[in-house]
Amino acid sequence: MNDFDWQDYSSETQAIRAGHRRTSEGEHSMPIFATSSYVFDSAEQASLRFTGKQEGNIYSRFTNPTVRAFQERLALLEQGESCLAFSSGMAAIMAVGMSLLKAGDHVVCSRSVFGNTIMAFQNYFGKFGVTTDFVNLTDLAAWEAAIRPTTRFLFLETPSNPLIELADISALAEIAHRHSCLLVVDNVFCTPILQKPLALGADLVVHSATKYIDGQGRCVGGAVIGRQQLIEKEIYPYLRTGGATMSAFNAWIFLSGLETLAIRMQAHCENAFALAKWLEQQPAVSKVHYPGLETHPQHELAKRQQHHFGGVVSFELVGGQEKAWQLIDATRMLSITANLGDVKTTITHPATTTHGRLSPELRAEVGIKDSLVRISVGLENIEDIKQDLMRGLVD
Under CATH, domain 262-393 is a member of which superfamily? Predict the structure, then answer.
């Protein structure tokens, strides 16, 4: 089992079996290697490990067997050559920027990314001489027009948060590579079960493992997956020095999450699709954002690019923020929290939470209205979810 090749197995099997190198104890479940350091056989072996001339564990800031198992498993699922795990999804994004960018470089980023991602590029990378242009996620011409000779990479989330818009990954990869740029895709909404950006031409995939990979809201973590050259030569040195490390315990939790990811994503998608169709019929709802609906502008792209339509639904209410807050406050079962990807259904008001730090002008520009509500649809009975929402949908 230790040298087993999982490449030819399905995603469901890889998610359960890959990455575990069974020890001499013969354990069936992946153990937690709760150790900060490792003992060497000799001074020579220690020297060889530290200089990189011999593979092996050195220090758990950057080498840990439990974390390594998670990295190998997620790399297989994303069809990538290598993966690095981080302490959070934002730490993974920061690692990409810190590793690949220098003063004078330029980034083209979708306007429709997580609010903190915008802050990272504007407020932090900007302090060190990196400039960023933000463009419409779905406008391929705008992406290409924004590229400069100094552009290092294009960065996007697809589907986007919270409007569930989709970008054509293959088309953007072609544009990026024609201009000698990299394409970086945040795949948190779909996970590798629903979408594989690397297979569509992306160079790097980032994840917040906090979301669907965990699936039960227990731990915070992130990951970056891509070609071995990029991961191990460019990003690994930053992890080793910067120390934004995933703990062994969190990696163990995420490994367990991966084991049920495929079956959970199927159930999330089925519930979300049913809820989106139901919301379309409610008089208090003016618009529903969900790519499974034929009314969604990227419905055909979603069918081509994803294996299902995802577990997040957002919708606009008649009456603005007052009605949105009224709906949220009327729920009894749904969890009022900005997290997503949980087996428990969560509900939030993006304009005052996840995207509250953006200016009103920028929120308006990207289409995040005060009337918008986002639901990460969990695995409760769909009729119970509808009933809970109905309390706030009727006066």
Answer: Aspartate Aminotransferase, domain 1 (3.90.1150.10)
